[in-house]
Amino acid sequence: MFVAVRRYQVRRGTTAEWTKRVQDGFVPMMRGMEGFRGYYLASGGPDALITISMFDSADQALLSNEKAADWVRNNVLEFARGVPEVMVGDVLIAEVN
Q1: What is the largest CA-CA distance in the chain?
Q2: How large is the average pLDDT for residues 39-52?
Q3: Which of 59, 60, 67, 74 is the most exposed place for a label (fewest CB within 10 A)?
Q4: What are the structural domains of the chain?
């Protein structure tokens, strides 16, 4: 399994609207991607959001980064402050209950 982690800085007061748009638009798109295993959106502190996308392969996770960048440009760019910090890597341990 492979993950893509993105950390976004967002404009103050826009987290709720960003979250709604992700739930309504981005999550369904991710579900339709080949190799999709899971997606999380979490608070990253004041005015920050963290996303974790999980896929079967590195290629699929890297493609998700391209789709995420395009989706952000077209759907929530007015809420973003700068470009996200992006990290990708192989999952070494996965424990889900």
Answers
A1: 37
A2: 95
A3: 74
A4: 2-90 (3.30.70.100)
Identify the H or E element spanning 56.
none
Look at residues 4, 17, 11 and name the one whose alpha carbon lies nearest to residue 50: 4
Characterize 10-42 residue by residue with b for buried, 16 or more Cβ atoms within 10 angstroms of its Cβ, and e for exposed. Answer: beeebbeebeebbeeebeeebeeeebbeebebe
pLDDT for residue 36 is more than 90: yes
pLDDT band at 97 (very low <50, low <70, confident <90, very high): confident
Following CA atoms 36, 11, 79, 86 in sequence, which dihedral angle do they give, to the nearest 10 degrees? Answer: -40
